[in-house]
Amino acid sequence: MNPRQEKFVQNYLLSGNATQAALAAGYAEAGAHVTGSRLLRHAKVQAALQQARAERSQRFRVEADAVVERLAQIALGDLRQVVDWDEKRLRVNPPEKLSEEALALISEVIETPGGVRVKFKDQLKALELLGKHLGLFSDKPREDPTESVEVVLKQIWQKQSA
């Protein structure tokens, strides 16, 4: 690989955008989108990207299964694990009583003059990402159209429990 291709790889890993990576690597602006696309198909560039991703995964100890598991925790999480409520008010459960799954639902906690405000992670976005990963959202018909999202998600949880 030449130095510009190496720079393309480094920038693509940062941005995830082939056009931006091509520009940052010094390729001409006029054809950057074509160049970026071509470089992504280049065997040595693909190998370098794959190796860099594997090294990053090792450095941060992030595995694909862990990412999918966390998405599933967020997508399927029950807000009642974090808060209790009645007709009069909403109460946040004490931190020591929150499970790892419950903590995965929380984006931020802010103390306000009126109490505590809890912001939750976007469950719809987590469902979308999980569905894309599982290939649930496709124009092509599924091999087994009777297989529901619920069945697929139960299979994920069973694998994680095993």
CATH topology of the domain at 3-60: Arc Repressor Mutant, subunit A
Please estimate the helix content: 55-70%
Indicate the CATH architecture of the domain at 3-60: Orthogonal Bundle
Please tell me the overall pLDDT. 84
Span between N and C termini? 43 Å
Strand line-up in the sheet with most strands: 1-2
User: In total, how many beta strands?
Assistant: 4
Individual helix count: 8
Helix/strand class: mainly alpha
Question: What overall form do the CA principal axes indicate?
Answer: elongated
CATH superfamily of the domain at 3-60: Terminase, small subunit, N-terminal DNA-binding domain, HTH motif
- Cα Rg: 22 Å
Main CATH class of the domain at 3-60: Mainly Alpha
The biggest sheet amounts to: 2 strands, antiparallel
**Helix-strand pattern, N to C?**
HHHHHEEHEEHH
Notes on the structure:
The chain is mainly α and 162 residues long. The protein is 56% helix and 12% strand. The protein has helices spanning 3-15, 18-24, 32-41, 43-60, 64-76, 100-104, 123-133, 149-161, and strands at 83-85, 90-92, 106-112, 115-120. The model has no long low-confidence stretch (mean pLDDT 84).
